[in-house]
Every structure is written in structure tokens, then in C-alpha cells.
Amino acid sequence: MTAPVLDHVATAAAMPARDTEMAVSLWRTAWRQIRRRRLAMTCLGIIVFYAVVAVYAESVYWYYRLRQETPPYKVVHFEDRFAKPTLQHPLGTDSLGRDVLRQVIQGTRIAFEVGIYTSLIAIPIAVIFGALAGFFGRWVDDLITWVYTVFDSVPYLLFILAIAMVVGKGLFGVCLGIGLTTWVGLCRLIRGEYLKHRDRQYVLAAKSLGVGNLSIIFRHILPNVVHLVIISFSLRFPSAILTEVILSYLGVGVQGEPSWGIMISDAKIRLWQGYWYELGGATVAMFFIVLAFNLFGDALRDALDPKLRTAEAKTA
Questions:
Q1: How does 108-142 read in b/e, with b if 16+ C-beta sit within 10 Å?
Q2: Hey, where are the domains in the chain?
Q3: Rounded CA gap, 285 and 268, in Å?
Q4: Interaxial angle between packed helices 277-304 and 260-270, expressed in degrees from 0 to 180 and rounded to the nearest 10
Q5: Using CA atoms, how far apart are residues 200 and 134, in angstroms rounded to an integer?
Q6: Measured distance CA(128)–CA(233) in Å, rounded
């Protein structure tokens, strides 16, 4: 075997190790950059706090469900209804005497489930379809473009309602409906990025070394566009919460659980009577998690975007 061939084989064999080292270095550099931003770390702390609350709420939910008992946030005390905030009820009680704070905590669980489950459905669809369309082009691009054009032509709310009515009301129908109808925007962005990256030098070099198409798509190009996925997740989370609020208002959202959408829908009727605790608790809880995800998503974009890193390196 000649020396050029040996060099070619050695280079190809060393590529996975170098790629792993570069990926680790990338995330370490991004983490150091984020740690220098107090606002980003504050938002991360808020997200972690909400995540801990959601895990606690999930454990309470399953504890009482497995024991087949009525959870405390569903217990009705008519004698305590419309109670003002006290030490026993920090956010007061609703029209049925249920503690508002406990409902807000359980609403955090519903919000995280809606945001995470819809992203787990929509983001893989968008990334796979967008990557295949942008990289291969031709008939693959035409077919995928036709598919997401058809999806985009149908009003998303009607599409979600149709899916929710077919699979049934509740959390599963909401997540499935939102996930299957909100992937088009990210798919277009990923497709455009792959159209730009497929003819760049590092992709051509990988092809000359005999690297397979799937490896190039998901191992070489995808890390350079992952910031779009992060931005999409930070925007998708509050959008999913808002959509759940609308569906709950229409009566096809989460059923039998104290989600923020149901709380706001119920509280607006009693707002003119001066009982604002339920509406205020759900709104404030929603505000902070939405704001934290948006700001932290921007910080992650700045830390992971290759173009921004290159610009900062040149200025430094």
C-alpha cells in the first residue's frame, strides 16, 4: 500500500476522534461564555427552578394517582372559596375553595410537558426533513417542499383542533396536534442552511475522504446549524403554552388538570368581581418562564453560532 493511501486511511480513521474533541471544546467554550453573562445565568437559574417545581409537581401527581386518592390541589372547600392571600393560602383560593398556589405548581408541570413533548415531536421532523431537502436537493427537495407547503397552507389552529378531536381531548391530543403542525418554520430554516453548507470546503473534503452522506448530514453539518434548533426551542416553549391556553379556552385542551390555560380561562370571569389572585398567579408564573427561555436561548445562540464566534475571535 502506497504512502498517499496510508495517509488517506489514517486521516479518515482519525476524523471521529478529532470531531469528538472539537465538539467537547465547542461546548466548553460556549459554557465559559455563558457563565460570564449574569443575565444568562440568572435565566438558567429560573429555568432550573421551574424544572425542579415541575418534577415536584409530577411526583405529587403520580403519588396520588397510584394511591387512587384525590390530590390536594383538587380538594374542594366551599367554605374557603375566594379567600384572600394568607400564610395558609399564599395566593388565595378559587371559586371552589381550592388553593391557587398548588394549582399554579401543577400548571408548571403541564406547561413543561406541553413544551417538551411538542418539541420532541416537531424538532426531529423539522431537522430530518430540512436536512434531507437541503443536502440532496432535486426531487427530494421538491417532495419535502410540497409536503411542508401543504401543512403550512392549513390554519394551524384548525389543524390542531382536528387532530385533538380525532385522538381525543386531553394532554396527548394537544401535544400531538401542536407537534405535527409547528415544524414547518424550522424545517425551512434548516433547509436553507444545508443549501449553503453542502458546497463548502469542509463538506467537499469529507466527501473526498469517502465519508457517507448521512454522516456528513448529521455529524458535520448539523453542529453548524444546531443554534437554530436551540432558538426554535426557546420560541416554541412559550408558543406551545399560548396554544394550550387557546385550546383550553375552546374546551379541547387539557382536561381535569389545573393548567395555566384553564386557570386563566376560569379566572377572567371573576376578574370584574376583584378576585385577581388566580389570574395573577398563572400569568406571573407564565411570564417568568417565557422570558427566561427567550433570554437564555439568545445567550445560547450567541455562544454556539459559528459566525458570531468567528467575529468575536477576529475582534479579540
A1: bbbbbbbbbbbbebbbebbbbbbbbbbbeeeeebe
A2: 36-315
A3: 16
A4: 140
A5: 13
A6: 16
Question: Is residue 5's pLDDT more than 50?
Answer: no
Domain 36-315 homologous superfamily, CATH: MetI-like (1.10.3720.10)
Per-residue model confidence as pLDDT tens digits over 206-258: 888 887 888 888 888 888 888 788 778 877 877 887 787 777 777 777 777 88
**pLDDT grade, residue 126 (50/70/90)?**
very high
Task: Specify the pTM.
Answer: 0.78
CA 50 from chain centre, in angstroms, equals: 14
What is the C-alpha to C-alpha distance for residues 106 and 85, in angstroms, rounded to an integer?
A: 18
Grid coordinates representing 10 are: 489514517
Instruction: Give the C-alpha separation, 57 to 16, whole Å.
Output: 42
Q: With contact defined as beta carbons under 8 Å apart, do 254 and 171 qualify?
A: yes
**Model confidence at 2: pLDDT above 50:** no
